[in-house]
Design goal:
The protein is of the alpha+beta class. It has one domain: Cytochrome p450, CATH 1.10.630. A 5-stranded mixed sheet has the order 2-3-8-5-4, sandwiched between helices. A 3-stranded mixed sheet has the order 1-7-6. Strand 6 and strand 7 form a beta hairpin. The termini are far apart. It binds protoporphyrin IX containing FE. The site of protoporphyrin IX containing FE has 27 residues, from helix 10 and helix 13. InterPro entries: Cyt_P450, Cyt_P450_CS, Cyt_P450_E_grp-I, Cyt_P450_sf, Cytochrome_P450_monoxygenase.
Length: 445
Amino acid sequence: MVSVDELPGPKGWPLVGNLPQLTPSLLHRQFDSWADEYGALYRLGMPGRRIVVVSDPELNKEILRDRPGGFRRQSAIESVMDEMGSNGLFSLEGEAWRRRRKLAMPAFNATHLRGFQPTLEAITERLRQRWERTPPEDVRAELTRYTVDVTAKLTFDYDINTIEQSGDVIQRHLELIFPILNRRLSMPLPYWRYLKLPDDRALERALAALRQDLTAVIARARVNLPERPTNFIEALLLAQDGRGSFTDDELFAEALTILIAGQDTTSNAMAWLLYHLAGKPEVQQRIREEVAEIPSVLERQPYLEAVAAESMRLQPTTPLLGMEAVADRTIAGVRIPAGTWVIVNVQHAGHQEENFSDPNTFDPDRWLNSGPGNHRPDTSTPFGSGPRFCPGRGLAMLEIKSVTGMVCRDFDIALPAKAEPPGDRFHFAVIPTGMRLDITRRDRA
Ligand code: HEM
């Protein structure tokens, strides 16, 4: 058995360790190239902190399965979310998480999603009409409008409609909250507890206003709770068991959690997917044919699903999951003491020849045919794994299928002449930068 300090890893400096080598917005690339150099388990040092980065699909699963007993999300996540009143399913830990997960899961179930499907299609139709009127310039921003609309409608039945209008009050609150939340999660020190910058004060005002709006929705739902839920808050209220009910604070935390967890992840996944389709008319044509034959996103659409799996293999939107050991553990013969940060790199396995032949090529067919090459689908885990597996996967897949099917049916996607490949920045989700796509209306004659 070896200790963390005996693991290989990039050489750091006295006192500050590897801190000066880390570029927050490029962590996913740095961690991948260190995995190539130092292997499936390597160590990093930061002041007062041991860090192990794990990039092996089996070990990743072992760690992610060992929750909440052996590992938790990094404690900063819980404290930042707690301060914002949004300590919900994503950030709760231990028994509190276990209870909440059990109560919340029915709100994500297939029956509920099926009921939501007509609303989802109506929002996709709005996006289609908008793009028909004005070809999209910033595709990622446009897709974020879509996911904001879908998530707000699903969560509390509020029609934000950022696709057709701007300046909605709730949208303005949310636009303020997300960047500051991201910034706080990536700050080494919680400066805002000692010094409030104008942004931090604006955040407090936005949260207070959002709380007021959501509390009114919650109060209405409590009085007129239907038998079948029409939104996430109602589904949570219906799922309460006899042991106690959700307080308004808990419902607010869950609603905000869903709004946060469901937007950037899905809009960026769709942006990367459309980028992978650009300039591949034969792939677009196959999707077009499939959605003509199987129009409902509630049905299996094997080719479209293979395209989504392939895009998320090449660029998972959440490539790194930050964990912390809550008990002493041994992973692959390495002693991991409680308190060690363990970064689970879920991206690396998808890019390895031993798991996927010709890994840098976008080839959806690899998910459909068991050909002669390497294909280990279980090593690509864009939605995490174990008991904290993403509960929004079903909704995300419906959104991805609905938008991709609509775009391929009614538009052509191409790369503009002389377009540079997009950059990628890590902000919990990996965001494409400078992504330019030509999305033009197809002649339907
Ligand atoms: C393509 C889109 C999405 C991706 C790639 C994604 C990815 C992830 C990942 C990697 C995790 C962590 C899993 C783990 O720790 O093992 C997660 C957790 C979570 N996701 Fe998603 N997600 C997406 C969409 C959504 C949507 C649409 C919602 C809600 C409507 C959602 C809600 C959540 C929640 C609540 C958690 C925390 C679960 C828990 O800790 O028990 N996600 N997601």
